[in-house]
């Protein structure tokens, strides 16, 4: 349930950003830095700390408390890269989301990269 609520919060916040960025877009626009799987190969669950991640990638776009499977409250950090390409009448948006979950001590529990495309 907590993950659903957290996902909804992120979706609403991200949607607001998308609406702001999409208005008046005329060519290609990028937001955020791209993070690829090879950029994250050094991260080890149970070893890498939040300080290591922030040192490498900077301050996350969003970070919030999240209940972990063991019922402890950790944190989830989100970094995103978005490309909006406009070629009238088509607008294509590619979003890449790098996420990291930390335990209460700030050690990485897990992480991943998700990619999505939309067009209208």
What this model shows, in words?
This protein is an alpha+beta fold and 120 residues long. The protein contains two helices and five strands. The chain has one domain (2-119). Strands 1, 2, 3, 4 and 5 form a five-stranded antiparallel beta sheet that branches. The protein is elongated, with a radius of gyration of 16 Å. The mean pLDDT is 79.
Main β-sheet description: 5 strands, antiparallel
| Structural shape | elongated
Give the number of DSSP strands.
Answer: 5
What string gives the helices and strands in order? HEHEEEE
* Number of separate domains: 1
Global Rg: 16 Å
Which band does the percent of strand residues land in?
35-45%
Q: Spans with pLDDT under 50 lasting ≥5 residues?
A: none
Helix content, binned percent: 10-25%
Tally of contiguous helical segments: 2
Structural class: alpha+beta
In angstroms, what separates the terminal alpha carbons? 31 Å
What's the rounded overall pLDDT mean? Answer: 79
